[in-house]
Amino acid sequence: MKQNDQIKKIIELALKEDIGKGDITTLATIGKNKKAIGKFLVKDKGVIAGLFVAKQVMKTVDKKLKFKVSINDGVEVNPRDIVAEVSGNARSILSAERTALNFLQRMSGIATAAAVYAKAVSHTKAKVIDTRKTAPGLRLIDKLAVKIGGCDNHRFGLYDMFLIKDNHIEIAGSITNAVEGCREFMKNKKKKFLIEVETKNLDEVKEALENNVDIIMLDNFNTEEMRKAVRLINGKCKVEASGGVNLSTIKSIAETGVDFISVGGLTHSVKALDISLEIIPI
Questions:
Q1: 195 to 54, 168, 182, 237: CA distances (angstroms)
Q2: Under a CB-based contact definition with an 8 Å cutoff, are residues 26 and 91 in contact?
Q3: Residue 108's pLDDT band (boundaries 50, 70, 90)?
Q4: pLDDT over 90 (residue 82)
Q5: Which residue(s) pair with 60 in the sheet?
Q6: Which pLDDT belongs to residue 1?
């Protein structure tokens, strides 16, 4: 499914969840021909993201609504900034308001966090990447926000690359067995996927290296262990650091020489950016 079609489906589900059989309060209190302008007002400092989704929400409710963006996605915003305006039928605007804001606030919160993390490692080669720790059903939305904020995406799901984790290794019997299984899978399917292996110590790093994998994940290594692992790997494959990453640790992790640092907190515990829709009747 194409990205635009996925976003459309997500929006339609969100609107159905919120509006259901009808916005009874708006239908009861607002005349069907009333017009209004809604201004998207930022109330906190951050990075705006998701205006294209908010626009699509409004247009899905009422294609006649006009939506004008005044500050583009990815731009730093400050309190009292007006990032966009919507105008047209007041009923339509009120019915779409909460769904549009839910997407805009969440995406802006993720983008704001991503921008802070990206800046923290900007003096190194390391790239901050997200994880699969996203809101169920909103992975595409969450990952788009990560990109808008200046970080990168890891795999989108279980289908687009191999990531051999500790439980896979435990059941398969070894890293070698698990990697061989992945290569046999690709041979049978006649498809190519990257192979990443999660490691817990230097012995596992050595075994992963011997199997010529594409990426080695250093899971919960301390910085000294990371440096040793990076020296051992010596550019033979990419290196990802994972586990216990936050803003107080990420700088020292990046300086060990890893290529990627995965941060689940970008999406799983994001603080929404405070944005409201100020509506004026016309």
A1: 37, 13, 8, 10
A2: yes
A3: very high
A4: yes
A5: none
A6: 73
Q: Tokens at residue 162, please? A: 């191999």
pLDDT at 184 over 80: yes
- Helix, strand, coil fractions of the chain, as percent rounded to 5: 45, 20, 35
Bridge partners of 262?
129
Domains and CATH numbers, the chain: 3-113+270-281 (3.90.1170.20), 152-262 (3.20.20.70)
Quote the mean pLDDT of the chain.
97
Catalytic: 219? yes
CA distance 173 to 181: 11
Q: How far apart are the first and last CA of the chain?
A: 40
* Number of neighbours of residue 8 by Cβ within 10 angstroms: 14
Q: Please pick, among 66, 165, 231, 271, the residue that the annotation labels catalytic.
A: 165
Pick from 86, 94, 34, 44: which is nearest to 64 by CA?
86
Distance CA 223, CA 245 (A): 11
Q: Which of 130, 196, 198, 204 is catalytic?
A: 198
Q: Which of 39, 43, 133, 200 is catalytic?
A: 133
Residue 98 is among the residues annotated as catalytic for this protein:
yes
Residue linked to tokens 């805009």: 104
Strand partners, 39: 85, 278
pLDDT tens, 207-226? 999 999 999 999 999 999 99
Mean pLDDT calculated for residue range 191-205: 98
**Cα separations in angstroms, 139 against 9, 88, 132, 183, 277:** 13, 31, 8, 28, 25
Sole residue written with tokens 């795999």: 155
2 as an active site residue: the answer is no
Catalytic residue among 34, 39, 98, 183: 98
CA distance 147 to 153: 7
Q: Is 183 part of the annotated catalytic residue set?
A: no
pTM, to two decimals: 0.95
